[in-house]
Structures
1.
Amino acid sequence: MDISAFILFWAAIFTSNILLTNFLGMCSYLSVSREIESSFGLGISVIFVLTITTGLNWLVYRYILVPFDIIYLQYIVFIIVIAAFVQLLELIIERYAPALYYTLGIFLPLITVNCAIFGVSLFMVIRNYNFLQSIAYGAGSGIGWLMAIMMLAAIRRKLKEKLVPIGLQGVGISLIITGIMALAFVGFSGIVQVQ
Amino acid sequence: MTKKEIFKISAFKENSVWRQILGICSALAVTNLMVNSLIMGLGVIFALALSCFTISLLRSYTPRSIRMMVQTLIIAAYVIIVDIFLRAYIPVVSKQLGPYVGLIITNCILMGRAEAFASQNKPLDSLIDGLGAGVGYTLVLLVISFIRELFGFGSLFGIKVFGDWWTNWSIMVMAPSAFFILAMFIWVINVKYYKNKA
């Protein structure tokens, strides 16, 4: 991959948004977007965890998995790295920033099972990014995810007083809104291509 | 509950996708071709049924505090088997599915079934429950990919159905259509079978 980290960062936000084009992180996206405040909290935690775990996983992959020829264990190792990091982060925040813990703490366990985190690590391996590219891609994806969930949360708040067909209420209408958002983002896709 | 009832409930009545809204990521991502959906579905059935079985076998030996980690590791082990198998025998599909095979690990359906059913029930019942949830999931994948491949490529399972006069709807191959079709699908199911709000 000979694309600069800077371009990759913007591409991860707009042209290949992790949620709107790769469908990652849908579960928490649909369930948390009921409220703007919690969407923002979760989004910020996702950005933070995503950036750091992508870097960590890159180091683990390059300096442990490849030299010892155990690439087939990458899934287990990545999951353990992510889970361990989230656990550690929880302990640190609880100890040193209790106020932050009350706002973000409840989201951290949700993040371990957020497929966006794991998916970005896998994309990084498949697309052969270098360290800087991985960090940029991780951060960009996190910001893209935050943007998507904030948009949906804002639209859903407006939607509360509107009449929605009974069968579509809740998940159905959220999926349609997401589809329209994805359609808008298709407009960016000609600018730069990351595959 | 008989084994048949367990299967029916987890496959249709409490279907993971349209009832519990789990596993949406891959239900949307791999459904542009029917072959991919079918193979993805079979992979999920295999990993889901066997990991439910194993988790249920080990349920009385697993300390409660670390059970999530144990469950994840068991699931990961089976997903690695699926991944290696696909890479060896169907490399083309494996390449197209890309990271989504590995993402079966974080598919909420597996964790959901493990928590809700396998950690409290007998191994054989859990196996049936896992099979049922997997079949229900595959069914949704096939329905969505049927629509997307038919209109997006004019073919089914790679075989041309429409003649030369057909113009492909490129929107069906792209991401937004997956959201719309899944939403419509959930809508139809809700109105037809549940008659109450989702």
2.
Amino acid sequence: MNGLLEVSGLTRRFGGILAVDSVSFAVAPGEILGIIGPNGSGKSTLFNCILGQLRPTAGRVRFAGREVTGLRPSLLSRLGIGRTFQLLQIFPKLKVRENLLAAGQEHRGSMLSRLFGAPDAGLAGAVEEMLAFFRLAHLAETPAGSLSYGQQKLLDIAMAFMAGPRLVFLDEPAGGVNPAMLAELEARLRALNRERGATFVLIEHNMEFVMGLCDRVLVMAEGRVIAEGTPREVRADARVIEAYLGG
Amino acid sequence: MTGRRLAAVAAGLLVAALLLLLPLTLRPYGLYLMSLWAVLTIAAMGLNLTLGYAGQVSLAQGAFVGIGAYAAALLTTAGWPLGAGLLLGVGLGLLVGWLLGYPALRVQHHYLAFVTLGANTLVFLVLRNEDWLTGGVYGIAAIPRPTVLGYPTDHPLAFYYFCLGVLLLVGLGLGLLLRSPWGRAFEALRENPVRAESLGIDTRRYTLLAFAIGSAVGSLAGAIYAPLVQYIDPSPFALGLSLALLLMVVVGGAGRFFGPGLGAAIAVLLPEWLRFSEGLYLILYAVLVILVLVFLPSGLVGLADRLSARARGEGR
Amino acid sequence: MSNVLQLLLAGLATGAIYALVAAGFALLWQTSRAINFAQGEFVMLPAFFVLAGTEWLGLPFWVAALLGLLLALLLLGLLFKRVIIDPLLPQGVLPVVIATIAVGILLKESVKEFYSAEAQPFPALTPGGNIDVLGAVLSLQDVAVLAVAGLAILAMQLFLGRTRLGRMMQATAQNPEVAEILGIPTRRMVLYTFLLNAALVTLASILISPVYLAKFDNGETLGLVAFIAAIVGGFNQVRGAIAGGFLVGVVDNFGAAYVSSDYRTGILLLLLIAVILLRPEGLWGRAEERTV
């Protein structure tokens, strides 16, 4: 395998329970990979193990040819891996612009240049671009906490893309988003993928959204990968139907 | 927007005039109070960085004031200039503050409050018990006032202007720091540490920095406190000062740049207005803190913001 | 040898009082996630209610003690919960920490202002005198403290573990959401914990004041020591906090005798910092699920 991300034999045990059981997969550059599965099938734990929130019990993660297993989230971010969380995670008291600046500032220069250098040199352009891309420009000076839920969701995703990551993990991006906003979100994500070659891995419960957006889908049940393929193949797979109905 | 700016400039000029001209009319005791206000404001500004901006509880700020005060007192009574004492105090503050930050990496809010509270008591015990260095309960007397740029500051008015100058420099420095990406990282750490970490912000390093810088500013305040009072013993640096500084920050408005100045002003002036009883002052102050917490979570500066916004019909 | 036994028994006697205070502290934390930084002042105050009863109103001691308990239940239980904790808890842990610090200052300064700044003698439960236990000389007061506090702890454990009400309180403490689903009136249970805490600090106050005298600033050390006991023992378990209380009482006594009386609080603080860094859930606590 020589994907952008390679996960092999990843395992996480909580006491006697195997939350993630020897999961392996790879993500190719430019791909959109969906991970689906019933509640409690280990999707979020898998994310947390890959992204440095939890230490995996066994297994390895390689990113762009480099071993990154167990690295701290801030380091992974600076290597080019972005993420969003299942619940909205923004800085509510900071302005929208400041949220985006905070999301990009650690990816260039040194600690000292961040203190003594011209503040935010080179970031302003990227911020304007993100504001325009996610249609938040008119809200740039508003505290993020007073945006609508849908707008906060867009900001949340914009922050993950601020530093130009090569790979982004999205945890239920469609959760709680109304249908009109959902179409907008799907269009934005698709554009990021086409225009910027961004690679995504996303967990999602909204099947329509997953099947429409993803190139490939991974199905998890009880901590294992039980099926893998194009949306069409997965939809027809008897094991998948059983996992959802039989659980 | 220009109306708001105008009001801010007018308020600024008024405060500047008050700080520069009022002292000319004051007797030594009034000058002492204003100098004390400047010192407490510096110490509270340091705590405001740690607590208000970076969201890390510290109940040890008073101990850092003590560390700075003893560093300055020991060096200046040994014949060194105050500048050396300042450097030593700030250096020690940075070092001990950085170390104090380590528990913050492992434990959350309430535990952190206890650890820092314990650290404060430990520093106090060292100041009280290590007679060979600190003079124990007898303290250090005859701390000289510095000569600044060739001007002696023995006169209370001269020393007050020295304190004010230091306050302005510290305020400027902290203002620039808070507007830099570091300041934003501190706020991100306060608002949402998990998200900050996922965006590449090294939350461990910034937590340690927040403790180190905030504590060092506290020590800086201590290094000016020593020549202000010219005699120090361990008693002012017990837990009480840390709690008082914490309350100043909260009453003024945690995370507000001018909050500490206002909180310190109330802390210095309230006992003067209520001269008949020191105890009653603390009672009222405690009640004020509770009222502010329950009704004005953003402090008095936050209240002023809201009132001025409402006055112009921008209230939400 | 008898010296060691003597230090041990005396340490256990003070430790029993710390255990009462630490247990109340742990209960509050469990049921409402409220850290009470005024817990030390809570212990200081009821002694003054009793003194006010005997000195100002001329009541007999036991009547005054009952009055003190009643006032404590009202002020330190009900009012404290309604006025301070309930409005501030939704704002997070930090405002509660700061507000209870302010409450501590308020109580301390009020006693100093309205009662006295001097240490007040407080009637002892027993006559003076010593008894001999296997060669160790132990004051009757210590024996009484150990007995009363020990019984109180035992009674509390039986109440929490064996009675219906106690179990409902425990369930609320361990998992409020599940308790709610099981139909337990959790809001009332939380109130009962605040009342139980008020009763515990009143008992501690009456036991400790004859030894240390009643003084407005007693709360500083008492609070700190009780916090250390709760954290060292593990304050997500009442049992841990109680064990921590005894341990801290003993360590304090031995530390003062054998290491350094100048640094006796310092020894406890080092113990505290070590436990927080190495075993943050406490020596007898159960680890809380960390969600980072």
